[in-house]
Design a protein that fits this description.
By secondary structure, the protein is mainly β. The protein contains no helices and 23 strands. The chain has a four-stranded antiparallel beta sheet with strand order 4-5-6-7, with no helix packed on it. The protein has a four-stranded antiparallel beta sheet with strand order 8-9-12-13, with no helix packed on it. A four-stranded antiparallel beta sheet has the order 14-15-16-17, with no helix packed on it.
Amino acid sequence: GDIYSVTNDTIDTLTVFPWNAEGVMRPKRELYTPHGTYGISADENTQEIYLTVQHDNAVVVYPKLAQGEDKPVRELVGPKTQLEDPHGIAVDYKNGLLFVSNHGHAIVQATDSGKFEPPSITVYDLKASGDTAPLRIIEGPRTGLNWPAGMRVDSEHGELFVANDGDSSVLVFKITDNGNVAPARVLKGPKTHIAYPTDVYVDLKHNELWVVNMGNHAALVFPRTASGDVAPLRMIRSAPIEKKALAIGNPGAVTYDSRRDEIMTPN
């Protein structure tokens, strides 16, 4: 019944609000997380939350009620994990699996040097910790992975939905997939209005797929089994799709141009 939000700023913080939160209010609690946390998922069976940590190439696990300076109950980190700039994370608690999407670049701690690998989805036992190798890896040119971001597992239908940021698409894999495999379905094209998606959500109650986009600041809704270049069922956006929407994010300064009567801000 709570809303969890990861914030990366001077201090990385996980803030928790009541589900019906509205207006200006203090969070119920805050948890100070490692720098570079990005994705979040939860295991409702064990009441644990999972966070990816980009800079450390790690996954950290906390109790859902953790707060303040509480430490993780376990961490998945090390060269055997093949975590490489992890972003999205999805828990399949029905089958006891953990899926992590990786952009592919990482820092080699021993030499403080960088390496670039293909983007991938690494799959682990849900209780994996330490320097543990993945059970399987989805990786290779046939996968179509390009900056994979947020993910969701549909355990009922055995599918993994991936917001494929760099390719402006949504990829759907079988949860049993391994290696250089093509997706079971791809949702992509001008009719979809998918543009640099950052996350997805599968609504099994209404049999729908939600896609949120950084590229056009829109939330799109499709049938769960949508494939190819198809139009969404509906869209949530602050302006019609043919119009520019207000797109201010992390502005660093602002100034006024009196000659042109315009306000300018770097975005």
